[in-house]
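Hi there,

I know you've been waiting on this one. I reran it after we fixed the sequence typo, so this is the corrected version. Both the input and the resulting structure follow.
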Amino acid sequence: MGITYVEFEDEAGVLRRYRKHVNGRGLVATTAKVDKTAFVDPTAYVDPGAEVQRGAQIGPGAWVDRDAIVAERAVVGVNVHVGPRAVVGRNAVLGAYASIGAGARVQNGARVPREIVVADGDEYHASSEDLRRLGLAA
């Protein structure tokens, strides 16, 4: 089976090419880097310059915007938007319908509740409970 490409015109009128990811069949821009062990749901997409690292999960309807990073084993929930240049830390979990603003950061291990908006440039901190869950706090 060959590589399947889909093309979209972005808001600036530039034609962008996406391919279907091997694990999940979600759409990944040809200039994005998505590890082969990451899962990208068939209804999700990853924009140009973005990076999705080992073991991460991108859920149904989720959108990883330009130049964003989703670190190892992070979970991006249903219909979540990870904004441009945002960083989602290792083992972080983004609840359904959450929105991570442009340039925002979600710390390693943090659990962002459903429908929460992390504003542009803000940092969402892991709670002590989040860290205990990962065995990182006393």
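Quick highlight: The domain at 5-133 is CATH 2.160.10.10 (UDP N-Acetylglucosamine Acyltransferase; domain 1).

Best,
R. S.
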